[in-house]
Amino acid sequence: MNRLRGLRPTPALLIALAALVVAMSGAAVALPGKGTVTTNDIRKGAVETKNIAKRAVKGKNLAEDSVKKRHVARGAIGSRQIKGKSIRGNRLKEGAIKWKQIADHTITAKQIADATITGKQVADATITARQIAAGTITASQIAAGTITGTQIADGTITAKQVAPNGLSTRNLSDMKLIGEGGANMVRVSATNGADIGEAAAAAPEIELYRKGQLTLYGKCMRATETNEVFSDIYVKTTANGAIFEGPQGERTGGNAASDFLNVGTPEDLRTVASVAIIGAEAEMNDGVFNVIGADGTHLSGDLMAAAKNGALAGGNGVYGDGNVCLFGGTVNG
């Protein structure tokens, strides 16, 4: 009996055996239940790309404004990654959009909120046909008058990039080169009258340009009694209260109603360019002008009036035969 009592394990041996069992089983302890791993349980930098399941990260997992430019690979964002109408000008830094940020043919009208993208958001000469899906940009996506030639690379906008009826005059700045039939001028035969008053009353108005309430027109007249040819360009308005300044006339406003360019203002007070010649001769003159209609339409430019009377000894040149006038120049509006 005393012999069996001598084989009992001592307390020290029991403690040693317990320590051995714990060591062999490892130190891991199970966490209590699903979803109990917190930020504090993960070592900084421990989670890598290979640890994240495909498409596991969603918008709700990202803090607001946490994705920066350095996090996005070049050309990685296409139309599939952008929610409809979610791109707005106030979310873009001035000049931030450059060609390398836009995958080819990925930006369409669906991604751009109406009238929110202006020239401020687009760096100069960065939009080309490669960045715009065919037929997707319409007037509703472009704030009026904000995209200029500096934002568009030369020769890149074609009919494919513009949706049918997608652009209106609100989106375009007009520049008219006066001319017809492929020539940068208008040729008119003179209308005869005994004197200039009679010839002016009979001569038709040759419309050169019209926008809003304003019209630019020319008249070619010949006074047979004095053998003179007159080539004149005028401006007129369909509403009172316009203002006009040019080398041959001026109506810039004032206390009197007649100080403005009105419907009934005489032609000699609204002349843009004028030339008069006597006998067999030719001459040309031009006029720089500005006119603003009562509706806010603004026209400016440099117009040319030329005239030839009879046959010239050295040949008629560009004028051709007869008593003729030529009208040309440019108008911006």
Describe this structure in words.
The strands form two sheets. Strands 1, 2, 7, 8, 10, 11 and 12 form a seven-stranded antiparallel sheet that branches. Strands 3, 4, 5, 6 and 9 form a five-stranded mixed sheet that branches. This protein folds into two domains: 74-172; 176-332. A hairpin with a 2-residue loop joins strand 4 and strand 5 (214-223). The chain has 333 residues and is mostly beta strands. It starts with a helix and ends with a strand. The radius of gyration is 40 Å and the shape is rod-shaped. Helices cover 8% and strands 25% of the residues. It has three helices and twelve strands.
What is the ordering of alpha helices and beta strands? HHEEEHEEEEEEEEE
Q: What percent of the residues sit in helical stretches (DSSP H or I)?
A: under 10%
Mean pLDDT: 79
Q: Specify the number of helices.
A: 3
Which stretches of 5+ consecutive residues score pLDDT under 50?
A: none
Q: How many extended strands?
A: 12
Please indicate the count of domains: 2
Sheet bearing the most strands, described? 7 strands, antiparallel
Beta-strand content: 25-35%
Rg over CA atoms: 40 Å
Task: Give the overall shape.
Answer: rod-shaped
Look at the helices and sheets and give the structural class. mainly beta
In whole angstroms, how far apart are the ends?
Answer: 123 Å
List keywords for this structure.
3 helices, mainly beta, 12 strands, five-stranded mixed β-sheet, 8% helix, single chain, 333 residues, rod-shaped
